[in-house]
Amino acid sequence: MSIADICMVAIDSGSAVVATDDCVTTTIDGEVVLLNNKTGRYQGLLGAGPDIWDRIQEPTEPADIVSALVEEYDVDSDRAATDVKRFLDTLAAEQLIKVDASSTP
Which of 9, 50, 97, 104 ranks highest by number of CB atoms within 10 Å? Predict the structure, then answer.
């Protein structure tokens, strides 16, 4: 599957996302660093990013992530939904998550 194929998968509230097994993580000075073993590329996560990463170690719907962030960070739900979608789209493009849209109508 190419990056273009992954980006074509819609990540919406009915999708489940989960971290890939092809990733190594470490924390350096409060930043979670993800290394994709297949591509050799890495991403650094700060702010709410590490919390989201922890939540997607098991298949999770984006709506559940948004709800948790709204409660934990006292952020507006529309803002949280936009930010979570952007974050998950980036992880998908970097092949750091798998998206299961099969539960989407």
Answer: 97
> Across the chain, what does the average pLDDT equal?
86
* Alpha-carbon span 101 to 10, nearest angstrom: 7
Q: Are 23 and 96 in contact (CB under 8 A)?
A: yes
Each residue of 67-97: b (16+ CB within 10 Å) or e?
A: ebbbeeeeeeeeebbebbbebbbebbebbbb
- For the entire predicted model, the pTM comes to 0.82
DSSP state string for 75-87:
--HHHHHHHHHHH
For 7-35, the pLDDT digits (tens) are: 445 676 678 999 999 999 999 998 999 99
- The radius of gyration of the chain's CA atoms, rounded to the nearest angstrom, is 13
Q: What is the pLDDT at residue 11?
A: 75
